[in-house]
Amino acid sequence: MWCEAGGFFVDPPRPVERAVITHGHADHARAGHAAVLTTAATAAIMRARWGADAAGVIEPIAYGEMRCVGGVTVRLLPAGHILGSAQVVLEHAGTRVVISGDFKRRPDPTCAPFECLACDVFVTEATFGLPVFRHPSDAGEVGKLLESARLFPERAHLVGVYALGKCQRLIALLRAAGYDRPIFLHGALQALCNLYTRHGVALGALRPAAAGVRRELAGEIVLCPPSALADRWARAFPEPLTALASGWMRIRQRARQRGVELPLVISDHADWDELTQTLDDVGAPTVLVTHGREEALVHHARQRGFAADALSLAGYEDDADA
Ligand SMILES: [Zn+2]
Ligand SMILES: [Zn+2]
């Protein structure tokens, strides 16, 4: 997204001179921009991924703090999506635009909650912008996993999670449900869990699912990247039971395609009800819908009396990390 008045892009898919980055997922944060404005946590995530190649300069900015970029006042507000995720608020010539970035409304102990701000134009994501997408309660989904681990103590429970956000949220949800056993991690998940811990998110006891211990993890919960579920890696565990935590697990066919025994519908994006509620809460007369299933939400917004349109952006596909 290009901001003409300020001379910068928001979440550009290619390297640019000046970028404002909403959050650390790879389809929003790319390496190689000359100058980046983002939250300190997102800056840390970008540096963890790319080191010195992340960007020329990264200027961290606290939620709510103002910066003048070109002629535009910019600030970031929490989006409730993952650690460090932000909405971008742009003010210029008496008009206020809010770009939601990826967001959700339900409570998440691993990040600051979404903040509603009244504005003239609200640019909303629509990853789950169809009425069929109504995410069940997180506690209920985590309860299914705990119940399965209790019923099948002879099986290692392998749960596919995206390394950034979903992994730490699932751990936090397990802790909130009272699960206090060590949680075992595939090596690819450790670094970002450490980063979350350094940013004050308590995750409890985490242990590497190292080669030497895999055989002994019957009845334990082991988190891994989704791709590892179908890997040789997974076969080293006793009677592995495969689960996958994603908003896409709402579509049974996707769970079947991936051979997932226990689909867990745990999403870091707003579902249909959260999307439509947010349009009402923000109350912007103009709504632009992007990044997902635009049509249904545009239609709904128009029926509710908003001026609404789809904003097609190049370079975005369905969020895999949903
Ligand atoms: Zn995201
Ligand atoms: Zn996204």
Strand content: 25-35%
> What are the secondary-structure elements, in order, as H or E?
EEEEHEEEEEEHEHEHEEEHEHEHE
Q: Which class do the helix and strand fractions yield?
A: alpha/beta
Q: Under the CATH scheme, which class of the largest domain?
A: Alpha Beta
Shape type: globular
- How far the N terminus sits from the C terminus, by CA atoms, comes to 21 Å
Spans of at least 5 consecutive residues with low confidence: none
Kindly describe this structure.
- This protein is α/β, with parallel strands linked by helices and 322 residues long.
- The chain folds into two domains: 2-132 and 269-310, Metallo-beta-lactamase, Chain A, CATH 3.60.15; 138-264, Rossmann fold (3-Layer(aba) Sandwich).
- Helix content is 22%, strand content 25%.
- The protein contains seven helices and 18 strands.
- A seven-stranded mixed beta sheet has the order 6-7-8-9-10-17-18, with helices on one face. A six-stranded parallel beta sheet has the order 13-12-14-11-15-16, with helices on one face. A five-stranded mixed beta sheet has the order 1-2-3-4-5.
- Strand 4, helix 1 and strand 5 form a beta-alpha-beta unit.
- It is globular and about 65 Å long.
- One zinc ion (ZN) binds at residues 23, 25, 81, 102, 319, 321.
